[in-house]
Write a structure and sequence with these properties.
This protein is mostly helical. The protein has eight helices and three strands.
Length: 312
Amino acid sequence: MPVRDISAWTHEHVFDSGNRAGERGTRVVTWITAATMVVEIVAGWAYNSMALLADGWHMSSHAVAIGVSAFAYAAARRYAGDPRFAFGTWKIEILGGFASAVFLLVVAALMVLGSVERLVVPQVIHYPEAMAIAALGLAVNLVSAVILGDAHDHHDGPEHQDHGPHHHHDLNLRSAYLHVLADAVTSVLAMVALGGGWLYGWSWLDPLMGLVGAALVALWARNLLTETGKVLLDREMDHTVVDEIRKTLETGSDRGGTRIADLHVWRVGKNAYSCALSVVTYDASVNPARVREWLSVHQEIVHSTIEVHVGS
């Protein structure tokens, strides 16, 4: 007789609760950045200031990138229950972080091009106006950094903290924060360069600081690309959790000489992993339920597919 009710053996595939504080924070920062962009572009056209126009268009790239992070949060939340996503929608957030890292590389490239152009063909700098623009940009980014910092603290408060080796920060929120940080650092370097040029006539300091800022932004972008790329490509078999799974299943007097023949581990949430494994044992009492019980000591393993082969 077929089983009529299988609800006891089914479960949902939502492995990450999301970050509503991060979503709100990135949305607010997107609007703040976009508003500043519009003010600078309009003022640039009104006052015929290339400095204001350039900074306004520079802000537009950050507004788009942070907007991508906000969209990723919303999309992951909206489609969380969609059965077409086999292991949930958390990786939409990681994809948003990856896209933001690419935008950071574009920003760094534009900074290099602009700096080299100014080194080859020096331009007249209107120091008071440029200093005001840099100060405005720094103020906007400090406010944005506080907003995103509060979102991170709210999400990783006492109820969310995990100080163990498998704790992972929100890479999507980190990408938005890096855009704000990159713009803030650019503003600080610009103010240093403008101060040197204004006081001592060192006009070459402006493009030099631009190159320094581009190098820092490129380094942050590369690190973020590496971290998000590893998650998107499921390239985490060198993670310590893999070794711990092997140790858990292959050691202990009650394991019956169990050995792992095949193991696949990948991340499905900030602190959540899925695994598919095949074990060989000479103890007939070892079955998938017993192996799952052994794995239960690792709370970060939220989904497992287990195959047991009993040797003779």
